[in-house]
Design goal:
The chain is mainly β and 129 residues long. It folds into 2 domains: 2-54, no CATH class; 61-128, Immunoglobulins (Immunoglobulin-like), CATH 2.60.40.10. Helix content is 0%, strand content 51%. The chain is built from no helices and 13 strands. The strands form 4 sheets. Strands 7-13-12-9-10 form a 5-stranded mixed β-sheet, with no helix packed on it.
Amino acid sequence: MRFIVYNSFGEILRSGSAPLSMIPKQKGPGEFVTTGKGNDETHYVNTTFRTLAPKTAMGASINKTAMKGDGVESAIISGLPVPSKIRINKKIYDNVNPVFEFTVNLPGKYEIVCSSLKFLDQQFLVNAT
């Protein structure tokens, strides 16, 4: 039978299959388990009902995708869920505001990925010259 292990926020930590009698043993300390099939990129667990729920589109926007890498000009991402995480070229920032301002000192391409538990990840590419 398929199972999902999740934390107290509903974030899917892992999933797999095991005999029904072994499913309760799949969780560790501070973890919860339920039956079902889910993908951590597209689902989360509604902790009230202990059911799998689909993530929805984030709907964030960015005001520019090209800017100067001078440490002064910035790009602004708005419409972010709170809380969220912002990953810029693999460095992760915890975000507690619906707006995130991005400034760089070096030219280059910057991949920005916005994520939040109940939403699909959203990606932006910014080119700094």
